[in-house]
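Notes from hallway chat w/ T.B., transcribed later so I don't forget. T.B. wanted the structure written out for a chain they're using in a teaching module, and asked if we could keep both sequence and structure tokens in one place. Agreed to drop them here.
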Amino acid sequence: MIGFAMCGSFCTFSSVFPQLEVLSSHYEILPIMSPAAYRIDTRFGTAESWIKRMEQVTGHRVLHTLAEVEPIGPKKLLDALIVAPCTGNTLAKLANGISDTSVTLAVKAHLRNARPVVIAVSSNDALAVNFRNLGALSAMRHFWFVPYRQDDALGKPTSLVADMEQIFPTLQDALEGHQVQPILSGR
């Protein structure tokens, strides 16, 4: 089973869901949402509509509380865990060992089994204050990154977004123990 955790980079949800559909045709998916993704309505859609879509695609109820995700580790529920999109806030918490949300606790619980965590970064400050967190996670065992690029180099020079179409090949490579290349996307 593959865990699929979504954080609140709402502008990327429309590019993440087609990849979730691809994954669900190959794997059983356990859906997880951060508190923001689970509760906040935005101009990109309502929380209720995203939850409903995630549950329809995966066939499972979305986990969104600390108590729901804690058993991931002790029960060895997942072969891999994908965080897509992974916000700068979540990136920082993961790099600093903070596990106070459903997504960060799911990652912590999953890592106790030394299995892959695939990160699809989407952050306006990934090349600024969060750059050190990106680097820290890149150097840690069991973290693999979906290739990423600047999404608007002139308008948002510190922003990075993963090439969501590369989630599946990144997962496949991570399950084999190596990083998909190139990690810097030119798309």
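Follow-up for T.B.: The mean pLDDT is 96. Might be a good example for the class.
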